[in-house]
Amino acid sequence: MKMTSTVAAPPLRILVAEDDPAVSKLYGAYAQSRGHAVTFARDGAEALVAAATERPDVILLDVAMPRLDGRDALKALKENPGTRSIPVLVITAFGGDQAMRDLLLELGAWDVLEKPVDLQIAFNKAERLVPR
Fold first, then answer.
1. Mean pLDDT of residues grouped by 10 in the chain (132 residues)?
2. What are the structural domains of the chain?
């Protein structure tokens, strides 16, 4: 009989950039239930500061946010040598819009998921984006 052991993956540092407090809380609680540490940003401008200072392993990014939207934040993240290599998973209500998906992928998103998102699928994907 062959025995296989599964080693739990190390916890990730996840930045959740989302302006809806209820959605942020949901993502944060789910991430923490999987053993991850979470930092929150309420808009794109906060996301840029948090990404540069916290150096998260992965960023979950909304598009429609105040001050600096997700498209501009993504562009700035990928132009900054300090944050360029951080994988960004975009979770947006615009995920079903093919032109928006294409733009986000061109700007450097690793993938685009549509809201409302299945948290298990989203976090499985986020965990796979991080090289270990």
1. 50 96 96 96 97 97 94 97 96 89 96 94 92 70
2. 13-129 (3.40.50.2300)
Token pair of 26 as six digits: 């949901």
pLDDT at site 47:
98
Distance CA(129)–CA(125), nearest Å, equals 6
pLDDT at 105: 97
Residue type at 76 in one-letter notation: A
What are all long-range contacts of 92-101, with beta carbons under 8 Å and residues at least 24 apart? 92/62, 92/63, 92/64, 93/63, 93/64, 94/63, 94/64, 100/63
Residue 47, amino acid = A
C-alpha–C-alpha distance, residues 113 and 101, integer Å: 9
For residue 100, give Cα distances in angstroms to 95, 110, 125, 128: 7, 14, 20, 23
